[in-house]
Amino acid sequence: MVGYDPGSQGAALSPEEAALAGSAAGMVTRALISPLDILKIRFQLQIECLSSQRSEGKYWGLFQACRCIRSEEGLSAFWKGHIPAQLLSICYGAVQVYRNLRQAVTTMWRSEGVLTFYRGLSPTLMAVFPYAGLQFFFYNVFKQLLAPPPTAGNSGGTLRSLVCGSGAGMISKTITYPFDLFKKRLQVGGFEAARVHFGQVRSYRGLMDCMIQIAKEEGVRGFFKGLSPSLLKAALSTGFTFFWYEFFLNVMQNVKEQQRTRDLTKDVEER
C-alpha cells in the first residue's frame, strides 16, 4: 500500500495481518465510492458535450446525472458492476450494458472471443506505472509537509494519512486521466447497439485512432470528460483506503495488545 511506513505501530503486525487490513480497506472503500465510478464512466462514454448550457447529451452535470440515473434505473444502478469491481474484473465496464456479470461474460466470449476481455489494455499499462509512481511521490511529499513536531508523537496520524492520500490521489489522477478515458472508450467497443439509447456512439481501431477521433470531434476538453467525479472519487478512494487501512491496523494492534495483557494477567494470577 502506498505510504505504508514499516516504522509505524502497524509494523508490529505480521505481513499477513497488514495484507488483511489492506484488503478490508479496499472492500469498504470500493463500496462507498461505487456511485462516483458509475458517474465517471457515464461521462467518459458520452460523445456529446457535458455542459448545462449546451444540453445535447443525456448527461450534463453531476446532480442532473444522479437524478436521471435514479429515476430511470433505480438506486441500485449506482452499484452496477460492484461485484466484478471488487474482484478487479475486466468485465466491470461491460456489466453496465448487460443485465448481470454472467450474461456479460457469455455474450462477450461468444461474439468476440477472448481478446475482447483485453480491450483498452495498452492505455491501462501506459497509465498504471506513472500513476502508481506519482501517487507514492505526492503522498510522501504531503506527509513530509504535514509532519507533526517531534514532541507531538504520532497524534493525528490517521487524519494525516487521509489528507495526504486524498491529495496524492487527486493530483495523480488528473495527470493520468486521459489514459483512463481512452481505456473506457476502447473497452466498450463492439457494444454500440446496447449503448445507442445513451446517445452517440463511436468505433475505434486502436489507441491512436481513439485519441485522434476524440481530439478532432470533442477537442482537448474531451480527454477530461468525467474528471470532476473522477477527482472526487480519487480523493475519497485514496483517502478512505488509507483511513480504513490505518483503522483496521489499529484494531488488530489493540486486539493483540489486549490479548497480551490478559495473558500476562493470567500468568501473574497463576503464580
UniProtKB/TrEMBL annotation:
GO terms for cellular component: membrane. This is Mitochondrial thiamine pyrophosphate carrier isoform X2. It comes from the Eukaryota. Its main location: membrane. It is found in: Membrane. Keywords: Membrane, Repeat, Transmembrane, Transport. Belongs to the mitochondrial carrier (TC 2.A.29) family. InterPro entries: MCP_dom_sf, MCP_transmembrane. It comes from Stegastes partitus (bicolor damselfish). Pfam families: Mito_carr. Solcar repeats lie at residues 13-145, 156-251. It is a multi-pass membrane protein.
